[in-house]
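Section 4.2 – Deliverable D4.2 (structural model, holo form)

The reporting period included a commitment to supply a predicted holo structure for the target in complex with S-adenosylmethionine. Inputs used:
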Amino acid sequence: MISTIKRKLVGRSIGDIIALFWTNLSYLLKYYTPSNIRARRRDKKFDARFGTHTSGSVEFANLDVPEEKIRTGVRYQPTGNGVLDEFFERIDLPIEDYTFIDFGSGKGRVLLFASNWAFKEIIGVEISHMLHDIAAENIRIYKNPDQKCFNIRSECIDVCDFNPPQTPLICYFYNPFYEEVFRKVIEKIQKTYNENKRPIWVFYNDPTNKHVFHESEKWSVIFETPDIGIYKISES
Ligand SMILES: C[S@@+](CC[C@H](N)C(=O)[O-])C[C@H]1O[C@@H](n2cnc3c(N)ncnc32)[C@H](O)[C@@H]1O
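Output (C-alpha cells):
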C-alpha cells in the first residue's frame, strides 16, 4: 500500500498531486453509483459466459510498467457492457474498411466487444505485459456466435511508440492516460492523417481531456455528453 502510494507520487508536482487526488475521488464517486454497481455485475456475467478474465480494476502503480511511466497512466478498469453500442448507434460507417484501435487496451474486453462488428482489423495497444498476456489469452478463448471480426490482436507497446495502420481508423480511448500522453497520441494520429488522408474517428469514453479536441481546428465534435464523445478529423 505505502509502496504503491510512493510509486504514484514520485516525481509529481503539487499541481499533479491535486489533479491525481481529484481524478481518484471522482473515480471513487462514480465507482459506487447504483448504475456502476449494476454494470459490474453485468461484467462478471460476461466473463462467466465466455470464460474470459476481463473484470476487476488494477492500479497503474501496481502494474509492470517502467518507473518513469507510472505518473502518466490511469488504472486498468474495463469498459462496461453496452458502451460501444452507444457510439455505434450514432454513426453509420463502412466498418469493413476500418481498423478499430483501443489505445490502452488492458485485458482486451473492448477488443472482444468490437469483434461483434465486421471490422477489417482490431488492434489493442497496452503497455503492461501482464495485461497484454491476459488479453492475448482472452482473444484466444473467446467464442461468441455474434462475432464478425476474427482479425484481432493485442500489441504490448507504449501508445507513444505505436504507429497506426494506413486504413480508415476508429480510435477508442477509455480515459487511459493523463493529458501529456493523450496529446502525444492525438498528435501522432494527426500526423498519420497528414501523411495519408483517410477517415479517422475518435470514440472517447469518459472524455476527461476533451478540451484537446475543442481547442483544435483539426477536429470536429460529432457528438458529446459528459460520458462519451465522438470526434472526427477535419478533412483539409
Ligand atoms: C481505463 S483502462 C482501459 C482498458 C480498456 N481500454 C477497456 O476499456 O476495457 C486504461 C488502460 O490503459 C493502459 N495504459 C496506460 N498508459 C498506457 C500507455 N502509455 N501505453 C499503453 N497502454 C497504456 C493501462 O495499463 C490500462 O490497461
